[in-house]
Amino acid sequence: MLMVAIDPSLVSLGLAVLESTGKPHLLQHIKQHNTAANWHARALQMATAVQYTLSQNLPLSPFAVLVETPANWFCERGQDSKNSEAVQKLYFVTGAICASLFEIPACRGIWSVDPGQWKGQSPKSVMLTRAQRYCARYDINLMHAPSDVAEALLLGVYGLKHQEPTDGSSLRFSEPIIHLFEGCSTARVGNKMDSLYSLCNFRAFSITNYCG
After folding, report:
1. How far apart are CA 104 and CA 63, in angstroms?
2. Higher pLDDT residue, 23 or 172?
3. Lowest-pLDDT range, 42-51, 125-134, 155-164, 171-180?
4. How many structural domains comprise the chain?
């Protein structure tokens, strides 16, 4: 079964698909240009772009998904970062991506990790170097790849080593996924999905492939 790893942000994301052997099958950077749109619409456009690229590239292959979720940390004034607007929005983006995966029959399971769980405090420059060395084994050049593509790749490698079992027939969310919608009730998210999917415009994105 393939491993899909997603490293999202508010305006772009890295997506990596790895074979069970660890060989990269697909590496993509999805960047949003429609920054003038309502941020709810932008989040759902991001989710639709993920759904589209996986449906197009993995139409029949079963896969599991590992997604990085926002970290929960405290600032110097002791305020929980989940109270910040940016982190709340990132929770919504990540939740929208996970919700979009429900509609892909080949998806066999989704679970989440926060950055500290899988990469500790490693800076982006270190992660990029690690990813470049990893891809060199497969003659894949990541020299000009954005950091979120490199981190999605390494997240996928982590996922292959720590993959949670799936029954092969249905989606199974781990508990952290339930909390992706903090700050937005499930009903609100569902209503936004219904009303805003129609606004998605793929011309608002650039999708760059680095392999596959």
Report:
1. 10
2. 23
3. 171-180
4. 1
